[in-house]
Amino acid sequence: MSIQIENVMPDGFLYEREQNLSHGVYGGMELFILPVDTENQYQIQLYTDAEKIEDREAFFEYLETLPQRYPFVYRAGYNGSNMVYVYVQTREQEDRENLTTVIAGLVSRCTEYGVRNCCAHCKNIAPLHAAAVDHTPLLICDNCLARVTEGAEGKPARRENLPLGLVGALLGVLLGSILWIVIGEIGFIAGIAGYAIVFCGMKGYQILGGKISKAGIVICVLLSCLVIAGAEMVSLGLAIYQEFGEMYGITPGDAFRVIPEFLKEPEVAGGVAKDLVVGYLLAIWASYASIRSAWQQVGKEPERHTVVRF
């Protein structure tokens, strides 16, 4: 059966038809009453940071005794964070009186123990507003309401700037290639280096380009493949300089200029090809999940909150 709150509200409470709840101030405390159709009950909600009061254990004990005090109370307690709750079983013609009795007793004890309303988000004692955020009734302060409302209204979506995105991607992959070269200098090929190149490329594209499209992701992956090959050539040039620089008195520039000649040697070419194949495979393995996630997120709008202020 569907519980009708509108006809059983305590005096001074207002009914919000769209959210199907009532709220009001009783004895200086603001409370919500919600129907729980599946349990044939009402839930009374009182937002407060009860853990901050001096005699909190006595207050919590009082909540636990409510089912013994009132036969129509199913259970009561504190959620450990920001809300006191009381479940009241419906008895039809008696509901208005029963809800008023429970709320009067609860508010009286709150006054006795120094319990006050607080913001459901930041828990500050400040001017509060009753509202429904994502269809959940809350008491919320001005600052938290402003932040949530901004999220609800959303900011204008940033447009993709392809030229700047390309610049950002290029700077990103070049930055990521440093890790490839450093790891190569100590004799290793690691998937993390390939991942770093792809990640930095996409992040650079997003930062300068505003956002990344599927075309931008493809561009970043292609740039990453080119940069991995370039980083391997840099590693080869450094290896040549370290091996022959002191012996023949060649400069780093000379070492890089003779790379094509060294690549004519089957042993050197084979070693470079092996490093690239292993490097590409590890880069794909390490970056696949990140690329797939970015691909799936393209075109999706950020989640926005719905806010209704009462």
Describe this structure in words.
This protein is an alpha+beta fold and 310 residues long. It folds into two domains: 14-153, Yope Regulator, Chain: A; 162-297, no CATH class. 54% of the residues lie in helices and 17% in strands. A six-stranded antiparallel sheet has the order 1-2-3-4-6-5. It has a three-stranded antiparallel sheet with strand order 8-7-9, with helices on one face. Helix 6 (214-248) runs antiparallel to helix 9. The protein is elongated, with a radius of gyration of 33 Å. The mean pLDDT is 87.
What's the gist of this structure?
This protein has two domains: 14-153, Yope Regulator, Chain: A, CATH 3.30.1460; 162-297, no CATH class.
What labels would you give this structure?
310 residues; alpha+beta; 2 domains; six-stranded antiparallel sheet; three-stranded antiparallel sheet; 9 helices; 17% strand
